[in-house]
Amino acid sequence: MDVAKQTTPDSFPKPRKFWTPQRKEALVGWLFLVPEIVGMLLLNVFALGFSLYLSLSSWDLLSGVKGIKFIGLDNYIRMFNDPTILQALKNNLIYTIFTVPVPIAIALVLAVLIQSRVYLKDYFKVAFFIPYISSIIAVAAVWSALFHPSLGPINQFLMDIGISNPPKWLADPKTSLLSVAIISAWAGLGYTIIIYLAGLTNISEELYEAAEIDGATALQKFFKITIPLLRPTTFFLFITMLIGSFKVFDIVSFLTEGGPNNSSTVLVYRIYEEGFKFYNMGYASAISWLLFAIIGLVTALTWKMRQEDAL
Prior knowledge:
Blueprint: H1 2-6, H2 21-55, E1 57-58, E2 69-70, H3 74-80, H4 83-99, H5 101-117, H6 121-133, H7 136-146, H8 153-160, H9 176-200, H10 205-213, H11 218-229, H12 231-246, H13 250-255, H14 267-277, H15 281-310
């Protein structure tokens, strides 16, 4: 009897179905992701690979795809011997100094003042943030009028206080890049302040009260409590603003077009010139990969420093 029961058809395990409810649900999820995956492959992976191939090629955009000719590392050799590229890289570094650490320091001080010592806090938050959400071209147009060499209010004020030969700002090779950096820093200051204000809300007031009981001054509390506890916020701002400073294009294109005499040209503007003014897409792609390498290297070094500091 026991043997018969063991060999009945009902005693055999039933085969598992391949299309279980869990697998059907997973398939539906993947089907929803297919358009995004295809778009990512075409717009990112393919574009990245094609750009790398173009950087090793010579291609006049007007000649069509058939005009692509492989030339190896000639574009890179030309790039490192091109004085305009070296000038653009130098300008990018100077622009980064004026638009990353300087605004971060100013925004931190202003955020602390707004948080603790200013009435009508909401008004100041909005007032500082409006330039950031405004069109950068509109902001640049206003500042272009302010920086006018002879009719601008800034130079009129400087002449009224006795400066007979004020700077020509955007029209002078010595000050054009500084002028662009000032406008960019001013326009982005509100965003940095808002981020710091958000970080300040996460710092417990008990820490400041305990420090005050111990006799700490306002400066001691700022340097011993505020700055250390805002390090993650500062790191976030530094990385994002650093990447943004190397990608600057629109304000340079609108205000100076890289001039005068390439004094305000930057890498992205050189990419635009080579690719869409001179139609030299191969050389433009090589400059793009230089920019990609610089941003990747700086970000990696900054991230490594951040990890070491956290330890």
